[in-house]
Amino acid sequence: MSDEQAVQLQRDGNIGIAIVSRPPVNAIDVAARRGLIDAIDAFERDDAIAAVVICCKGKTFFSGADMAEFDTGIAAPTYRETLVRLEQCRKPVVAVMHGTVLGGGLEVAMACHWRVAREGTALGLPEISLGVIPGAGGTQRLPRLVGMSVALDMLISGSAISAERAEAVGLIDGCFTGDPLIEGIAMARKLVADGGGVRRTCDTNLPRDALDPVLFDEVLVRYKKSLQGRTTQKLLVDALQAVTENSFEQGLDVEAALSQSAVATRESAALRHAFFAERKCAKIPTSLGTAAARPVRAAAVIGAGTMGSGITIALLSARLPVVLVDANPAALARGLDMVSGHFQSAGAKGRMTADAVAETLGRLQTADDLAAVREADLVVEAVFEDLALKQSLVADLDKLLPAHAIIASNTSSLSIAEIAKGANHPERVLGMHFFSPANVMRLVEVIRGERSSIEAIETAMAVVRSMRKIGVLAGDAFGFIGNKMMLDGYFREAEQLLLEGATPAQIDCAMEAFGFAMGPCRVNDLGGMDVGAAVREQLFKRESRLDPYCVVSNRLAELGRLGQKTGAGFYRYESGARGGVEDPEVSLIIQQLAAERGIAQRAIDEREIIERCVLQLINVGAGILSQKVAYRASDIDVVWLAGYGFPRYLGGPMFYADTLGLDHVAQRIRHYHDLHGHYWTPAPLIQELAQRGSSFQQLDA
């Protein structure tokens, strides 16, 4: 779209109208900023215009800033220049909002003199999620409108509030239900008739709670868990303190300096990388071919266990009719209870209306026979992780389903090519690896089997998006992206450290200090030692690994120490408590395993634990990138951010490697190779990129 079309000027009697059109989400780019200034200039010169309305075409008012400008720089007119011009207009300016009004979009509205929003509009300043702070006056105008308490909560949480809540706290002047343009003109006419003139936010008196220092501490404590390891919140507090200590113009200067400081941090770079990586992973590499996704009007899930029931909830939430099938009546009943209980709970908590709950559950059918899935366009099998069982089931589904239907296996590690062997149409078989709990976790690895068609892949990715999840395409190697890196990298190294003398608690505390919510030993206890043992059993049917390879977990599983569910794993759990305590018996087991292998135990510090576990993640990640199991380094980052709890403010393992410098990464891997041998050989890709002075980001580009 040309700059001339960015903002269209109209008039309705004595009301000037600026209609912004920057599809698809009306991001505020340089053309929109220039158009707004030109509109104010034109309407201010026209003596016949008494008031100005600003609204946007499409599904939303300004949704936020043009993210590309983080890298290209902000061209004139800047946000500050644009918003000051809006605020200083001599005629009343009305912002008429709908859709999702975030970041710069809300800053534009706050610079206008009057603000209204359609019911259901979401308004917020989520910049903290990108490691930045508002830079167009958001920290200076928001507390002047809503008070410091509400402003601080909105800015630190980054959460949007509803139009109704926005009206209650004074952020907007009213809600409406009709067409934004019509409602905006009506409000402007009323302002003119009632003598409601210019009302500049910058001139608003500060609220009484503006100087309360206790308030800052209370809000920071409230969000302490979500802000662990973060620094942006400190800059936000500094910007808000400037509201009470400076003039408005000086406050804008302070905010601008703090905003520039935030953008320059590694934290912000990492969070912005994560933001773009999650959008990039939806694009299938053109080298694999191109095809349109098939329509999916009905789905089915085979297996009513915890995973199958969670997948059913996710598909129902995507507004699809779903048939849940299980030959075991008791299992089917439990699955139905879980699904219906989920939506009934949502209704009881006010997240869904009673009608919505009834409509959703009305799309669910259950059956104990495969024949019930004949009309499905997509069938997801979620039966026990056994190759022969999955092969048999897929072969039966292939004979039963119409030619267009897609068969997806929810496997965490098994070969899709092997699972599809018994099918006459292996091109419609692929993997959809959901993460538990499937209705909560956002990540789905979509696995491309040897003969999976691009049409089937695009369809699966489209279904993932409809569930509001993140789909990442992966190749058909054991463990795909995430589990291969976890098993061959993270868990393997954690167990090696155990054999060398680190305790489970030392390793867990070190990795939690790095930024993981749970360390690897606690993760194993939570998931169940038998689960990992079963996965490794499948691995050894296909591939070999040199000893020692997860020998501690295997021994604990053999002894029946399966984790929380048996009261003992790496830790001991008293009376079903989720928090474990260290167990001397585990130390003896580990010492015996180390002695059998001639491994001398020693004291190991936190720095070494973190470095070795993270370097192994990076090294294995580079290997699967070379093998095209992952198609982009950023896809690996998305998998580990969305599925495995890698700290988001570090950007993912491959981005983190870039921040360390690949020459440094290669050097440290060679250092550990000299000490520990075979599996510490640097991945060829790391060495190649390091020698070129390149990075994973540059490789992706």
Textual characterization of the structure:
Helix content is 50%, strand content 12%. It is α/β, with parallel strands linked by helices. It has three domains: 3-264, 2-enoyl-CoA Hydratase, Chain A, domain 1, CATH 3.90.226; 292-475, Rossmann fold (3-Layer(aba) Sandwich), CATH 3.40.50; 482-603, N-(1-d-carboxylethyl)-l-norvaline Dehydrogenase, domain 2, CATH 1.10.1040.50. An eight-stranded mixed β-sheet has the order 14-13-12-15-16-17-18-19, sandwiched between helices. Strands 1-2-4-6-8-11 form a six-stranded mixed β-sheet, sandwiched between helices. A three-stranded mixed β-sheet has the order 7-9-10. It starts with 6 loop residues before the first strand and ends with a helix. The model has no long low-confidence stretch (mean pLDDT 94).
Largest sheet: 8 strands, mixed
Low-confidence stretches: none
Helix content: 40-55%
Mean pLDDT level? 94
What is the fold named in CATH at topology level of the largest domain? Answer: 2-enoyl-CoA Hydratase, Chain A, domain 1
**What's the architecture of the largest domain, going by CATH?**
Alpha-Beta Complex
Instruction: Please tell me how large the radius of gyration is.
Output: 28 Å
Our count of domains comes out at: 3
End-to-end Cα distance: 26 Å
Name the CATH class of the largest domain.
Alpha Beta
Name given to the CATH homologous superfamily of the largest domain:
2-enoyl-CoA Hydratase, Chain A, domain 1
Number of strands: 21
Structural class estimated from helices and strands = alpha/beta
**What is the molecular shape?**
globular
Strand order of the largest sheet: 14-13-12-15-16-17-18-19
How much β-strand is present in the residues?
5-15%
